[in-house]
Amino acid sequence: MRAVIQRVTRAQCQVEDQITGRIETGLVVLLGIESDDKQSDLEWLVQKISNLRIFSDENGQMNRSVKEVDGEVLLISQFTLFALTKKGNRPSFMNAAPAALAEPFYEMAGARFAETIGKPTQMGRFGADMKLDLLNDGPVTIIMNTKDKDHF
Hints:
Blueprint: E1 2-15, E2 18-23, E3 26-32, H1 39-51, E4 55-56, E5 62-64, E6 72-77, H2 99-117, E7 122-123, E8 130-145
Parallel strand pairs: 3-6, 6-7
Antiparallel strand pairs: 1-2, 1-3, 1-8, 4-5
């Protein structure tokens, strides 16, 4: 799994004319799922993201997690995080998990974030053409890959 995590002061996801998720202070998590990902990858990633100390404390130091600032998570499925661009100019997405595998992982991630941070996870719509509007705070943007988890 790959994730792009952005600290935001506000964000929303819209599909057609419907807002599917909206948050104030918190994290936008773009989540890409690979064909060989496992439940253990999901658990590790949710725990790691939920406990990242990337919010400022009273001294302006990044010492607080999304849980500690009573923040929210907006979770967006993002198969394009597995784009292969080595050959030609058209990306290949052959390493991205097929929808039948990826969608249940995406839904599980939403449920696990809700359990971990103690409030409902705001979501995009799997497989939809989504429009994101966000205000990146900092900016703070972090990229994580569960294939690298043994190096953390």
